Amino acid sequence: MKITDAKVFVGGPGKNYVTLKIQTDQGVYGLGDATLNNRETLPAAYLNDYLIPNLIGLDPRNSEDIWQFFYRGAYFRKGPIAMAAFGAIDMALWDIKAKLASMPLYQMFGGKSREGALLYAHATGADLEALMDSISHYVEQGYKAVRVQCGVPGMPTESYGVSHAADNNKHYITDFSGIRPKVEIWDTDRYMRYMPDALMAIRERFGEQLKILHDVHHRLLPREAAEFAKTLEPVGLFWLEDPTPAEDQDALRLLRQHSTVPVAIGEVFNSIWECNKLIEHELIDFIRVAVTYAGGITHVKRIVDLAGLHHIRTGFHGAPSHSPLCMAAQAHLNAWAPNFGIQEYLVLDTPECDALFPSTHRVESGMMYVSDEPGLGVDFDENEAKKYSFKPGSHPVVRLEDGTLWNY
Q1: Neighbouring residues of 259: CB distance < 8 A, sequence distance ≥ 6
Q2: Burial 366-379 (b: 16+ CB within 10 A, else e)
Q3: Which of 214, 217, 317, 322 is catalytic?
Q4: Whole-model pTM above 0.70?
Q5: Can you name the CATH fold of 3-104?
Q6: pLDDT confidence tier of residue 166, bands split at 50, 70 and 90
Q7: DSSP alpha helices (H): ranges in 310-350?
Q8: Model pLDDT for residues 219-252, shown as the tens digit of each residue
Q9: 160 a catalytic residue
Q10: What is the pLDDT confidence band of residue 165, given thresholds at 50, 70 and 90?
């Protein structure tokens, strides 16, 4: 069996999804997601110019060797561009292998550990009452876990993950339009004074059963993160996400020494070498990598296994920048992983997206139920893809009130 062709498609409804389709001489094809949010053309170019020419003629069943060939064969390793491209190839090869076996992908890992996977939604509001309304919206839909973000009084501009649009505060999606990034202003003191009481008010309103998650988005220094986490202990958070930048894997030691609040980190990590010490030293409780950014199923499965040895659960990234292909790959891993924790779910379920990526995966009452179709359980309509083209955009940037550039 040989790979005969591979194509890259860039575009989608509201997002520049980077979709890889690998074709074989037996007519079986596989699909993968290489979307690197706001830098989408880079993994697409890497695939077209360097990787696909080396794929043609290889046996797609040898996914391990192909992964090693691209990773170890590159003198300069890792990084989000390369790992997203490797991730798409790896995802597509697993899709092919499961289709050849006439099995859903999770069976290739060892079968299901659970029937449904717990999801969390994103609630947001310009102020606390608007956030409460947004939380209620998801609770009424059956969600048992909600990430909560709200505006901070006196903050010059919106905080991370907060909508100020009156008609959009229940379904907030960051505006990435335009190549020149928007600027958000951040004030750590205001945030640390306001947010503990706001989170406690949410707990009091919605009771002990709701799983409450909160994302700091790398905004605090290690000492600040330790102080903040300690003040949040009475809230009973399900997790505190990205309290401080984790390029320095020892940065969380101070937090661990002062607080028992569960910590989730990893959505910007690209390899096991960026989180191995966090895991081995048990400085986190949830690992947040994504199958696309972290090099595909082959590599992420290794991270999941390592995490399982150290009592750390999964909490895969699930922003709209991941196409339904990445979310499907994660759904299969979630069905299998003995140390599954929760899955972020912020996908735009629109008729346009469903037409581009037909699927039988389903979401009901805040749970994801994986498809039993062979492979990933998601297809790709090339005719629908012709409707879309690349539109450049950028993440916002963050500055302090004095103009200092800060962590986004």
Answers
A1: 226, 229, 230, 232, 233
A2: bbbebbebbbbbbb
A3: 217
A4: yes
A5: Enolase-like; domain 1 (3.30.390)
A6: very low
A7: 324-336
A8: 999 999 999 999 999 999 999 999 999 888 888 9
A9: yes
A10: low
Q: What is the CA radius of gyration of the chain?
A: 21
Identity at 187, one-letter amino acid code = D
Residue 169's pLDDT is what? 46
Domain ranges of the chain: 3-104, 109-372
379 vs 265: CA distance, rounded Å: 31
Q: Any catalytic annotation for residue 217?
A: yes
Is beta strand 29-33 parallel, antiparallel or unpaired with respect to 18-24? antiparallel
Which amino acid belongs to residue 295?
G
Q: What span, in angstroms and rounded, lies between the C-alpha atoms of 327 and 105?
A: 13
Report the pLDDT value the prediction gives residue 216, as an integer from 0 to 100.
97
Residue for token pair 């993994």: 43
Catalytic residue among 160, 293, 345, 388: 160
Q: Are strands 263-265 and 286-287 parallel, antiparallel or unpaired?
A: parallel
- In CATH terms, the fold of domain 109-372 is TIM Barrel (3.20.20)
Tell me what pLDDT residue 173 has.
62
Residue (of 304, 287, 375) closest to 93 by Cα position: 375
- Region label for 111, one of left (φ > 0), alpha (ψ between -120 and 50) or beta (otherwise): left
Distances, alpha carbon 295 to alpha carbons 53, 88, 183, 338, 344, in Å = 19, 8, 30, 21, 19
Q: Which residue has the tokens 């996977």?
A: 117
Q: Which residue has the higher pLDDT, 174 or 320?
A: 320
